[in-house]
Write a sequence for this structure.
């Protein structure tokens, strides 16, 4: 019997009761194990945890989804949520606070470990507003200078 290839893509509807993002981290581990270096998987788990937590803490009014796609030595992670995006700001402004605080580091952490990070937002009268943050991660050998992008749809 021939082995079936594992899919490149993981798509997950997040659970608002799981504020610690354990389910998302576990799903990433199962999807990526043996396919990417452990440090890259740890970066994906960190970014997913921060972005999913931020979505729920800062206004997600409905479904939050996590999408991870593997392609060779790179991975793309997107967290999409419905809600107001007015307080997010451009990714180039996602900096660590100057003084230690209990919160406010999630977007800066995601930016710091990503090769590129993109913010996509939409405000529409016919559907809920939505926000998607996409992080691209590569192996340490293939990582160019970090970049930030912002796109309003």
């Amino acid at each position: 019997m021939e082995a079936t290839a594992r899919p490149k893509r993981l798509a997950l509807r997040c659970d608002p009761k799981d504020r610690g993002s354990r389910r998302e981290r576990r799903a990433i581990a199962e999807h990526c194990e043996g396919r990417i270096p452990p440090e890259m998987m740890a970066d994906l788990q960190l970014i997913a945890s921060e972005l999913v937590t931020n979505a729920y803490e800062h206004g997600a009014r409905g479904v939050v989804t996590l999408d991870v796609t593997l392609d060779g030595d790179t991975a793309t992670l997107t967290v999409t949520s419905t809600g107001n995006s007015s307080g997010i700001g451009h990714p180039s402004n996602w900096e660590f606070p100057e003084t230690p605080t209990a919160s406010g580091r999630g977007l800066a952490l995601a930016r710091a470990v990503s090769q590129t990070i993109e913010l996509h937002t939409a405000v529409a009268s016919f559907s809920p507003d939505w926000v998607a943050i996409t992080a691209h991660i590569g192996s340490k050998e293939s990582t160019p200078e970090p970049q930030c992008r912002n796109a309003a749809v």
